[in-house]
């Protein structure tokens, strides 16, 4: 499993946009069938907007007690 981190201490520099674009590029250009996006911005998330989710939607599996991230264009 490959993990790629995109980070900066400055806000508003395009981290979410670059990360979302990277997810689509890995899926489309490299043909990866499993691509995930995890945002851990404690000051204010904006990655959901890059995928057209406003507000962000999470599912809940009560049996396994897990959150289920949304699936958008094959990216979870």
Automatic annotation (TrEMBL):
Matches recorded under Gene3D superfamilies: P-loop containing nucleotide triphosphate hydrolases
Pfam families per the UniProt record, alphabetical: ParA (PF10609)
Record keywords, A-Z: ATP-binding, Nucleotide-binding
GO molecular function term, any single one: ATP binding
Annotated coiled-coil segments of the chain: none
Keyword Cell cycle in record: no
Name by which UniProt lists this protein: CobQ/CobB/MinD/ParA nucleotide binding domain-containing protein
């Amino acid at each position: 499993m490959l993990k790629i981190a995109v980070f900066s201490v400055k806000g508003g520099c395009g981290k979410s946009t670059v990360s979302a674009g990277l997810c689509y590029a890995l899926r489309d250009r490299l043909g990866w069938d499993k691509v995930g996006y995890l945002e851990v911005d404690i000051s204010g998330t904006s990655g959901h907007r890059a995928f057209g989710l406003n507000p962000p939607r999470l599912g809940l599996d009560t049996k396994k007690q897990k959150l289920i991230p949304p699936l958008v264009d094959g990216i979870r």
